[in-house]
Amino acid sequence: MSLGRKPPGNEEIGAEPNNSLQKLARSPMATPEISSNAFVISFRKNVSQPVTAAFIGGGIAGAVSRTVVSPLERLKILYQIQSAGREEYKLSVSKALRKMWREEGWRGFMRGNGTNCIRIIPYSAVQFGSYNFYKKFAEPYPGGELSPLRRLVCGGVAGITSVTFTYPLDIVRTRLSIQSASFAALGEHANKRLPGMWGTMIHMYKHEGGFLALYRGIIPTVAGVAPYVGLNFMIYESVRTYLTPEGDQNPNAVRKLIAGAVSGAVAQSFTYPFDVLRRRFQINTMNGMGYQYKGIWDAVKCIITQEGLRGMYKGLVPNLLKVAPSMASSWLSFEVTRDFLVNMGKEV
Question: In 3-state terms, what secondary structure has residue 342?
């Protein structure tokens, strides 16, 4: 062996790697793992953005809250659409729920909830997402606290945005909720196959005025939703701040539930007459149940003349029974989901 020759296999540190190692490094087998990791990192960064996290959290919160209170939600609608002379559901909440169970069973409790969830997931997602989006323009400085008035305005605009996107599903949900109920005006339907969500929507489009039929009642809806959502956001954030112990950033789950229940109950009580008007207009052309109101003021006049002032608050009791657990579970689900998604971005 000559002194100038190196033993095979003992390359110097820093020397060029051999051809086999270069080929392995460029092998397509290594690409999927790197590509997959890059996708996961990008995905976690995207969903952790405040507006995106609020959008997703809002959708989940909507589905959870509506399913929890579905029987009371349906009962509220049955109360709302009863005018003078119709007494099929002129019962206490407990007796009406028993009647619903006796005549329709578990399906009666959940009637319209599938459509309601399909509606409420995008509705709630757009509402929470747009509120967080509008907040950025209302902040006195980046990251600054909003005043109660600014929260009210941002919440109101968010409510209008969300209801405009999802209103056709809301009117269909109302129809589905009452079509199997035992109202004499609707006739017998024991042996009838009732239409589902798409069947009802197509029927309305073809026989009740086309596209505009799917937005019947949207004006009283917007008039009620804007202040309701605005009050809900304003009161929740104010009560949440009040219930947060000094030195902490977040209250515990029980305090969040209390804040959600209070905000929902107060906001709903103030805006409830608009909700009654919305339901009446949604069935204004429905066979057997149509009220044929000429406009909002005509509806208010007819309801108060025929049913008294109490007619504007029909269904308020089951609504208040449902709104506390509904809004409490909604806000808690939203905050848990949003915080989880935001923290995903911090771990990247």
Answer: helix
Among 36, 55, 35, which Cα is nearest to 341's?
55
Cα-Cα-Cα-Cα dihedral of 271, 277, 283, 284, to 10°?
-160
On whether the CB atoms of residues 151 and 111 are closer than 8 A, the answer is no
Question: What single letter denotes the amino acid at residue 79?
Answer: Y
Q: Are 277 and 228 in contact (CB under 8 A)?
A: no
With CA atoms as reference, report the closest residue to 59 among 116, 128, 110: 128
pTM: 0.69
State which amino acid sits at residue 136: K
* Coil, strand or helix at 281: helix
* C-alpha torsion 121→70→231→171, nearest 10: 70
Q: For residue 61, give the amino acid letter.
A: A
CB 176 within 8 A of CB 197: yes
Rounded to whole angstroms, how far apart are CA atoms 143 and 40? 28
Give the least confident one: 21-30, 57-66, 166-175: 21-30
**Lookup result for tokens 């169970």:** 101
The 8-class DSSP code of residue 124 comes to: H
CA distances from 6 to 3, 12, 13, 14 (A): 8, 10, 13, 15
d(CA 22, CA 298): 82
Task: Report yes or no: 275 and 80 within 8 Å, Cβ to Cβ.
Answer: yes
Please name the amino acid found at residue 332.
L
Please write the tens of the pLDDT for every residue from 210-259.
Answer: 888 888 888 888 888 899 999 999 999 999 999 988 878 788 889 999 99
Q: Read off the tokens for 246.
A: 């000094």
Characterise 315 by phi-psi region: left (phi > 0), alpha (psi -120 to 50), beta (else).
Answer: left
Residue of 210, 211, 202, 267 whose CA lies nearest to 237: 267
Rounded Cα gap, residues 81 and 72, in angstroms: 15
Instruction: Compute CA distances 293 → 49, 171, 212, 296, 302, whole Å.
Output: 46, 17, 16, 8, 8
